[in-house]
Fold:
Amino acid sequence: MALNAAIFYSDGYFALDLYPGEARDRVGADPPVADWDPRSPIWLYWNGEKLDRDEYEFEGLTVVRLGRLTECDVAALERVPLPQVSCPEVGLIDVEVADVLLWAKKTYRGPGVHRVGWATAAKR
Structure:
């Protein structure tokens, strides 16, 4: 079963959040895979309380410069055990997190500011 996620994009900065608007203890850390490059442009966030017990519960990610994201970065993310997600506001249903990044890279190629997901929640 896929988890609903919200996305945000602004001038190259991309974020995927599984718990938008919730006050949670999110901790940025490398994933539990041996070959993760610590210089990756993908920053992963985990549940802080569970991480203290060496349990990895994915809560989201950010990419500071989406234009610098490479196919190698996405391939590395595919090796991380992450849940399936759905971003219904943009038509992505039951997909891999890596697929969301590939969609974002194709969608947000040009200049300008585009906002989707929790960034538009205030307009409702």
